[in-house]
Amino acid sequence: MTPDTPSATDAVARAAEAIPAARFHGADGGAVRPCTPAHVTHRHLRMLDVRPGMAVQEIGTGSGLSAALLAHLVGTTGSVTTVEISTHLARRAMGLYAEHGHQVNVVVGDGLIGHPEGAPYHRVFVGTTPPAIPNNWLQQLAPGGILLTGVRISDLPGAYAIARITVDDQHLPSHVEIHHGGYTPMSAPRATVPLTHTTDPDDLKSTITLLGNHPETKAAALLDALHDKPHVEPTPAPDDEYLHLKNWIIASAPEGLLEATLTEGPGIGLGAISNDESHAALITDQHLITDHPDSSVSEVLRALIHRWQAAGAPRTHELHAELRREGDVWHARITLG
Description:
The chain is α+β, with helices and mostly antiparallel strands. It has helices at 6-18, 22-25, 38-48, 65-74, 87-100, 135-139, 216-227, 241-252, 296-310, and strands at residues 55-59, 79-84, 105-108, 121-126, 133-134, 141-152, 160-167, 173-179, 195-200, 203-211, 231-234, 257-262, 265-274, 277-284, 287-290, 320-326, 329-335.
């Protein structure tokens, strides 16, 4: 079922109308501000395709609103369990559920473990981004069950997306979709990955991150290349197209892939050093920034953009998606197929 299927849309819309968001976000000292806009949460709940009578597990209670919406969707014949690591947030949600009659079981615990005592679940909804997807979550799904979670699609720190994963009767991924978007990172230690990061000492908001272990001087040189009289022009992927282009570039896995944040904002790009000369190019949601309009790196980035456009500017969910297992966790990745 797609997010635009009328029955799914109507069910989520009715739940949102029946449960005022302000009730959970609170005010003054009791406020819990949402990290995700309401329309995005509603879109993801439609993607999850929750139906009456289902058993649903939520990881990360937050303000408590999502679990209340889920309880409305499953009805009196279903069940919702929400797992929250913060005792304060869990107790706050318990009080709101009791006060307003929402049938939600609140568990204080580590979301990476989940709540196996309530398994199997038809759906697992994770409104945060773990360092990697725990196999626990897949094991706690019923055959044919669906997990919707924030994921990292690259080791680059800003490479966030949303994964919709269906499991088979062996609790293995049978179908994986990756969509644009993302959730804030989970309160959990992240696995050590080979990255090189540096910050401009004269502008602490200006940073660059390279994939792999490199001398910090290389990262600093590439950051300088983006600062030293760069060529700036409007982005060829305005508005919401930028995230799809960004993810397509990640999927294409070009050599020299990097992230940087400049005064023009965060972006993704390429960098290279040859003959003691540093060349870099970056695309943001507003600008295309290069050290020189005709540099070799600029040409490579422009060629990637042209390839994306020639392919019909594919959306993130149109790319090939897969999960790669590493011990007890799974890593989400996208490729060009």
